[in-house]
UniProtKB/TrEMBL annotation:
GO MF terms held by the record: FAD binding
Gene3D superfamilies: D-Amino Acid Oxidase, subunit A, domain 2, FAD/NAD(P)-binding domain
Alphabetical list of InterPro entries matching this protein: FAD-bd (IPR002938), FAD/NAD-bd_sf (IPR036188), FAD_aromatic-hydroxylase (IPR051704)
Source species, domain of life: Bacteria
Identification of the protein by name: Oxidoreductase
Length: 403
């Protein structure tokens, strides 16, 4: 039964977390509005993974078969030296602890499926809009929008990502909660020359990594350039030209396809760059406002679990709002259930596999090459432990389906 005290919900961000939350809240009978600053759902993006407990969420949404149909099935990551000579390769899913039901698919495909799943309900979408101000008045939250409109909602949920504006308004600046993992990265589309298919090719030197990732035999691939930064660097420029200049300086003189990647990086209009960071907060809620997904507990792409955390967190948050008497009780129950799961997944970003793909030192590279040699001789058995798979399935989903 939906509690009258928190029937209307405003979700900031049509993200994976936001769309999943909208689906379940609508299912439970809430009045749901999603505000999104973009003009439509974001359909682009790199490959993402739905694993472990998150697979149970999409199954309960009735979307598992559609998501499985979109499975990319990447095969190998190949490591090369500066001349392009192969150093070794690893089967992707053996390295990350994949199980049979886990799915890799384009991010845009998942967001489209989630969005379409809400279209048959009562979810109201407000595109080209965002929140300008929030004032919790006890019985509700007064929201000022960037177009000058004002409205009151019972509950506000920030599902607006790593750089959450909702979090900034309610909890303080991002710098208070962002934990740098010591790298920044550039991701951009490139024409696929056919040399890469169903996986990735990576060349790394201490403190800088370059790669190309291809989705099956798609004629377009993703270029990837990541480099080490000062972990105490608090401010990160969002200026694309400045980032390109900085990237060129860092990768100057590097071999393999790096000169080509640097040139191509400046051509597309889809360059995405950011720090490799986590969000770590002492609390995910304040009054009638709460955060979900990357806004609350971003694990960074090094964990490979951002999508799964978003799906699981949104499912639990919606369920607790449906069964608890007050928003505050619901938020406390949601955090009690999800925080141990999120923290366990965040640790995956700092285990040895992180240095495997983003080495900071020559020693990291030597260890990686030794592992590649062992795989070539004996296969992956005993190389990658089962801890990652255990973490993916760490949380047993509550069943709110009788609500």
């Amino acid at each position: 039964m939906v509690r009258a005290q928190h029937r209307s919900v405003l979700i900031s961000g049509a993200s994976i977390a936001g769309l999943t939350l909208a689906f379940w809240l609508d299912h439970y009978g809430f009045d749901v509005t999603v505000v999104e600053r973009a003009s439509t759902i974001r359909t682009g993006g790199y490959p993402i993974d739905v694993r472990g407990t998150a697979t149970d969420v999409v199954e309960r949404m009735g979307l598992l078969s559609q998501i499985q149909e979109a499975h990319i099935a990447s095969r190998d990551v190949t490591f090369v030296d500066g001349a392009g000579h192969v150093l070794g390769n690893i089967p992707i899913y053996e390295a990350i602890g994949n199980k049979q039901r886990d799915v890799e698919l384009p991010r845009g495909t998942l967001t489209t499926l989630l969005y379409e799943a809400t279209r048959g309900g009562r979810v109201n979408y407000r595109f080209d809009a965002s929140i300008a101000s929030l004032h919790d008045v006890g019985k509700g939250v007064d929201v000022g929008f960037t177009n000058g409109e004002v409205a009151r909602y019972d509950v506000i949920i920030g599902a607006d990502g790593l750089h959450s504006h909702t979090r900034n308004l309610v909890f303080g600046p991002e710098e208070l909660f962002r934990h740098s993992l010591g790298f920044c990265f550039n991701l951009f589309s490139i024409p696929n020359d056919g040399e890469v298919s169903h996986g990735a090719v990576i060349h790394a030197e201490p403190g800088r990594t370059a790669g190309v990732w291809a989705i099956q035999d798609n004629p377009s691939a993703f270029g990837f350039l990541a480099f080490e930064i000062d972990e105490v660097e608090k401010k990160f420029s969002r200026d694309a030209k400045e980032q390109m200049k900085r990237t060129r300086a860092v990768f100057s003189g590097m071999g393999w396809k790096v000169p080509h990647l640097l040139n191509v990086m400046e051509a597309p209009d889809d360059l995405y760059f950011d720090t490799v960071s986590q969000i770590r907060m002492p609390r995910w809620s304040a009054g009638r406002v709460a955060l979900v997904g990357d806004a609350a507990c971003a694990p960074s792409f090094r964990s490979g679990q951002g999508t799964s955390l978003a799906l699981v967190g949104a499912y639990v948050l919606a369920g607790e709002l449906a069964v608890c008497d007050t928003p505050e009780e619901a938020f406390a129950a949601y955090e009690h259930l999800v925080r141990p799961f999120s923290e366990a997944n965040q640790t995956l970003a700092t285990d040895d596999n992180g240095a495997f793909f983003l080495p900071k030192t020559q020693r990291d590279i030597e260890v990686r090459n030794h592992i590649l040699s062992e795989i070539a001789r004996n296969g992956t058995e005993g190389i990658f432990d089962a801890r990652r798979a255990r973490v993916y399935n760490f949380l047993h989903l509550p069943d709110y389906r009788t609500v």
